[in-house]
Amino acid sequence: MPTFFHLEKILACLGYLLSLTVPIHSQSALDSSEFTQLIRPAQELLTARKYEEAAVTAKKLLSDLSRKGSYPTHYEAFIYIVLGDCSFGQHEWPQARDYYQRGLKDQVDKSLRSDLLNRLGRLYLETKDFEKAGPPLEEALQLRREIYGDQHLLVADVINNLGIRYLHIGDFIESLNYQQQALRIRQAGLEPDDPQLGQSYNNLGQCYEDMGDLTAATDAYENALLRYPLHTGLDKERADVLLNLGNVFFQKDELIRARMNFERAMDLYQDIGDVDGQAICLNNLGNIAFQEDRFRQAEQLIRRALHIREDLYGVSHPDVAASWSNLAMIYRMRDEPDQAIAALRKCLLALNFHPDQENFLDQVNGYQPLINALYNLADLYYVKFLLSDDPEFLGQALTQLDHNDEVLDYLRIRYETRGSRLNLVAIGHEVYSFAISILLELQKITGESRYWHRAFRYSEKSKALLLLDGMYRSKARTFGDVPEQILAEVDTLERRIVELEKEKYLYQQARTNAFPLDSLENLLFLTRQSFSQKLKEINSRYPRYYQLRYENPIPSVPRIQQELLDTNQTLIEYFVGVDLVVFVLNRDQFDVVLVPLNRDFETQLDTIVPLIRRFPFESTQRLSENLQTYSSAAFNLYRYLIAPLEARLKNNLVIVPDDKLGFLPFDALLTERVDSIFNLRDHPYLIRKYAISYNFSASQLEEMKGKPVMSNGTRYLGFAPEFAGMQSEGLNELIFNDQEVQEAKAKLGGKTFIGNEATKRNFIRTQQNYGILHLATHGKVNSAEDDFSFLAFARTPGMPQSEYLLYLKEIYALPIQAQMVILSACETGTGKLYRGEGIASIARGFSYAGASSLIATRWSVNDKTTTDLMDYFLDDIKQGMTKDRAIQQATLQYIGSQNHRYAHPFYWSSFMAIGDMRPLIFDMTLAWPVGLAVVLLLTVIWYFRKIKVSKRR
Predict the structure, then answer these.
(1) Rounded CA separation 39/11 (Å)
(2) Within this chain, do residues 637 and 578 fall inside the same structural domain, yes or no?
(3) Pairing mode, if any, of strands 911-915 and 853-857?
(4) What distance in Å separates the CA atoms of residue 548 and residue 841, rounded to the nearest whole number?
(5) What is the pLDDT of residues 390-431, one digit of tens each?
(6) What pTM value is reported for the model?
(7) Total tally of structural domains belonging to the chain
């Protein structure tokens, strides 16, 4: 469990606060020193945890004050603090809240108000009312910063409590940021063994535990234990840490060590009479018994915990919910689904989940437990369906998953950090996978196509939502009625965050001393918080911005068919679950195909790309094996992915991959078995039959196609840096990149930056004025920190990396307006895979930043090959060909011009077209009227669509 700013320290500060905040009034009947003496007995009783006696003493002082006549209103507020703390210590939450709120009604100064607000926020955290905890804690933090500055220990206390709030709502990365900031401040102002550092380490441990980093969690907890020695009045704090350590060992399946820690914590809780802690230990010991298949003992222990918790908190509390959830697991394992369902229903009530009420998610007291409970309840209803064949149980299961979808949407808006939102997206993928399987089952039973439509919606929600959020944010900026000055402030803060994160990354890479790094992290935390507050202000003051930012609907199947697809296009959207679900959309047809999967599919999928990439480097002895295995995998994957759909397919395929399919070059699949594995130029590659483009989702395609055609839509800008002497940095010299962009300029006109002129600064300065951006350079994926994958530009001697490497983090923040971005660089279409979100590639960064279409690469290719392919491609683009057809024809022309070795997919299947495939208009006499017509049409469609959405609400 997290630890709060403990009571003894609060009371030690009370006298200081009195002297600081209460002026001595010569007219008053009672000055501050006299009042300090009068309140001291109540303080001492409170410190000794004699809450009832302390409360009686404080109430008597309050009564005496009212008879004395003149006294500052601060005095009453201090008494209400003591009374509130007494009620808090006795778990009398409503009474404690009432006392703190009474203190806030008095005319008190900033320091005292911040103290009351911090306590009120802490109380809401204790009662799991996380929505209400935020505002008082944020105001308390603002006030304390105004009084004490950013680095005061009292500021750290509020930051600590805000970190606990983020932890409980599941935004564990933001919680980690807050706890690290609190620790930095405390390390600077306290002795190394101070218990407050133990508190910070314990809370950090919980963040790491939720992130799945159990090693870092263990280290943090052990650091906390060092600050909580035995027999020093810190037994509760020590017990809390032992409990958390036990949880880590439980997750590692080290049940003996887990039990030992739980029992040690139980002894300490019993010594101090902490029944809440005892209940947690009983519940956790029950979970160990469950893991050991001792179900009867597990039930007994968990029921003991449940009785304590219900006596302590009533029926509505997340700890009560946890016990009901654990009991449901026991009943499930004993094949008692009805009892398990009843237990989970009580779990939902304990989580304060009442979906029939207005704004019901605001009242929930545990979001992650709610997601788990709803999913498990859906699973139990599905079991009931399997036992009975009654489709009513499928409907019940689907209802729970629909609720889970609502919870995920609710949290996605509230989570502030990318890491936490990525975790939420991964959870969503599991939820949507289950929902899709149920919807397909319902369609099979009923024959109703509406279930297919709902399944497609969930497939869309499982793909690239964070990328889509970025696009919606851009739209909200344009149409959200926010004053330019405020948007400029947001831009300044966002750029500052990017610069600080980049600087931090470079410091870490250089392994320099920790002092400037600590300073950077502190500044980064403060800037992020300013940015967050500014966005909250915009969301609350400009409802239209909020609507455009967060309430954009997933496009329906009919809308995609009529507005996104041409008559010769087929959109194929894959969803990888237990089986492969394929949604096939044509202008006049919508089908769903279910393809059973086995281990062979995953083996072939994991094999094919490494085989292609290894081809040029294989020894003569291994070459035959490589080609044989490739041809087998390429044909088998075709049979899984394309053959079952073949009768439905048009000539141009728009592929929306899922999970590992995002790495696969579909172009290189083989439509037939090959007799001669060495005749590579004659192989039946899929690209011979179809022009292929890719998209992150259909929703993202809608956004990319919806961008207005700018007047500079076909102005060309090319960059070809020189990398002589940079081999030691992994940047080999490119021989043909300058030729590539010079030939492109000869075809398209425009401007080029060659050699030392092809700098990062020149690109950022000029890119917004051009419609075609062409970067013939090096790209590099950073698999450890994907935000710092980069494109390389020209470097002068002594130039730091930050001035010649354009990081993905920076690309996200660029205002890209280009109709097409050609990333003629290595590894721009690949990166780290995030389940449910896709591949974090450099191409994705340009899409997020505003590009309408992209040409990217999956792996490093010889720059002569790239030059030839781009030459063919741009010839066809200049003739008005669609981009997917142009990349197809360029590839086929390349294959036909090569010998068998260089016709291998390694040299051409790296290239991929993403986004809007419509042709570019090079006749500038037509560009303005066509562009204007498109803008007007999109505006009218957007306007009427928003009216329809508003009416549905």
Answers:
(1) 11
(2) yes
(3) antiparallel
(4) 26
(5) 999 999 999 999 999 999 999 988 887 878 888 888 899 999
(6) 0.85
(7) 4
